[in-house]
Design goal:
Elements lengths: L5 E2 L10 E11 L10 E6 L9 E6 L4 E10 L2 H5 L11 E2 L8 H13 L4 H8 L2 H4 L7 E6 L13 H12 L7 E2 H8 L5 H8 L3 E6 L1 H11 L9 H14 L4 E7 L5 H14 L3 E5 L6 H11 L5 E4 L5 H12 L5 E4 L13 E7 L16 H12 L2 E6 L4 H8 L5 E5 L10 E6 H4 L13 H12 L3 E5 L8 E4 L18 E8 L5 E8 L6 E3 L11 E4 L3 H11 L9 E4 L7 H12 L5 E4 L12 E6 L13 H13 L10 E6 L5 H7 L3 H15 L6 E9 L2 H15 L8 E13 L2 E10 L2 H12 L11 E5 L6
Parallel strand pairs: 1-3, 10-15, 10-16, 11-13, 11-14, 12-13, 14-15, 17-27, 18-25, 18-26, 24-25, 26-27
Antiparallel strand pairs: 2-3, 2-5, 4-5, 4-6, 7-8, 7-9, 19-23, 20-21, 21-22, 28-30, 28-31, 29-30
Helix pairs in contact: 2-3, 2-13, 5-6, 5-7, 8-11, 9-10, 19-20
Length: 786
Amino acid sequence: MGSPPLLEGLFPAETPAVRAELHALVAVERGVDRYPDGLLYAVPDGLDVGEGDRVTVPLGGGNQPTDGTIVRFATSAEVDALDCSKVKSILARDAEARRLPGELLQLARWLSGYYCCPIGMTLVGMLPAAVRKGIGAVTRTYVHRAETAETAPPAGLSKKQAELLTTLAAIPVHEQPVELRDLMVRAGIATSGPMRALAAKGLVRLEHRTAIEASFERAGLESGPPPTLTSAQRTVIDAVDDNSSTGFSQHLLFGVTGSGKTEVYIQLVQRVLDAGKKAMVLVPEIALTPQTAGRLVSRFPGRRVAILHSGLTAAQRHHMWDCVAAGDADIILGARSAVFAPVPDGTLGIVIVDEEHDSSYKADQAPRYHGRDVAIRRAQLAKCPVLLGSGTPSLESWMNAVERHVSTLHRLPERAPGLNVPRVDIVDFNKERKQFTDRRVNVIGPTLRAALQATLASGGQAVILLNRRGYANYIACVDPHCDWVLRCDQCDAGMICHRDKYESHDGAMGIRDYTRCHHCESEVRLPKQCPRCGKKVTVFGLGTQRVEEELHRLFPSLVEGATMLRVDADAMHGERDFRDALGRFAAGEVKVLLGTQMISKGLDFPNVRLVGVISADTALHLPDFRAAERTFQLVSQVSGRCGRGAAAGRAIIQTFQPNAPPILRASKHDFEGFAAAELAERVRFGLPPARRMARFVVRDAGETRCRQLAEELVAGIQPHISGSVEVRGPAPCPIARIAGRYRQQVEVFADTAAELTRFLTAVRNVPGLLVLGEVVAVDVDPIALL
């Protein structure tokens, strides 16, 4: 941003003597935004510090000890320009924290500048809380049976050693590796000495692992031999690998669902590992990590796979982070935050972003980064290839490949051998609902009902999708002359009805209805009477809980939580829940998997013969220019979950708008036709990806004050508008109030990213104009406009 480093404070703290010429710029964990690389501090004699070290520094007039990270050392010119007699000194270095790699520090500086977030808060967002707080990692010892071991214990073993080996051999393969303490309990052995002796003889292998690593090792042991590559897959692998020798290169892999993109990723990882480098694989959802991790562990049994995502415990995250930082991890796998893994400088060989189109890659808190774009920058800094993969690429990535030629486009136009292209049927629900004879709300039409009946009767499995949580989304008075509708008292949004089952004190089962706001999470009981006229309250609309209830009514053999599972944010509370649900579905125990968009991508189960979309219209008419793109992607992705085995697959798409272009194009698997038409519209109206966009959101408890602050912001940025920069607003956000705070938006457009960045930098450098935090939020390249 061009500002000089801050001379922190008027009075120096009482610290040890300072080396004359050594000063460091420290990113303190506070919202200080005027100084791009942090605050200037002196390095005292005897304190050994380097760039990337976590330190404690005095901050403010009270010299409050504050944590921070050394971003870089100050230049002589920067130091000479200041009165160094007033510079405070670093208090201490955190001896327990690992030094951040230089590539990660460069990434933090870019992230701070591009996404308009103070450098200190950027680093806070990049580092897991467990790492910053020094929460210890819990590892356990797991036992593997040696590959050369005989079925029966060899001669010459003690009784306890033989008992341990016999017990280990009796444990099913999918439950191995087994924790040492668990094995000792099963064998009735009290001490670990006999097991250590077996390890010394090479009859077992002991490894220190977290529980999460062991679970993925178990999953991997069940995988079969690798598939034979198709010529198209081999062409993509060779092309990306050939570019790796020249440093950074950017690639887009456009492969229809089931075309074998994952196998391409695994083969590229193999080549990177063979070259002595490390690989980073990003997936959009925590739900996708179990399958992907199992495949990687199975294919690379001698390699360490580090898992990084928010579903892990604090201790597990810290352990994985340390494993990566020490260089022990060969493959880094995780959701968007895994892009910040501290891979040692010069060792990263490839970055792979699976399902690159997915909106889950975008963070909704500062720094509001997009994991896909940060992955590209990470690969640039590491001088290695980055591969973006999707069956329905984002229009940003598609334009970069086919028009701007920033990326090299690779195609996998056909499904892998043995997989069938699913038949997609669009069902007009306006006609279907006329066949219902009862007065209750029905969400499963006759076509889908019959197909599901046939699928279950033949032993197949089904995936049912509705991208809406809860039981019903409209709560109102039954009297048509009364206009009362239940809305959140803190947000300009309706409340959602949820239904939970509970067991009373006498053992009887009951149902509890309550309402929840999906924006501020406030909850109230479902009222029984209208507060205006006293008549009954009714609930309309649909959600995954209503679908679950109807499935059980139509198919009594489907037992909730047993043969039918609901997978949404209300039912899944952590990574273990996702892993268990998918494991039971893979084993065939669960016949129907019902859920939101988290089940629409990346899942590969050969016995899924039917996919049903309850309503393809949920996102089609939202006040967001990406509504059509999201609808196309959702329908295409979920349809691709079936037809992955010997049996033919069928997708049934229920909709009230059967002629809507995104739905029609998705049913024909015509991404390129959809992309061409949609990009023409974006160019016509000057919307991303044709132009770059940033969004200011001003928030205040008072509606008038909020509008005033937004107008003052627009007035302040007017002098900095130049070139192609265009400012629109202020105007109320589509959801004008959330959590008791009114919201005004100001949208900024520019023809290029460089021009938009220059404008934002100029605005940030105006003292007092852009006070980031609770009042003003800046979202660069926004993907959600509600």
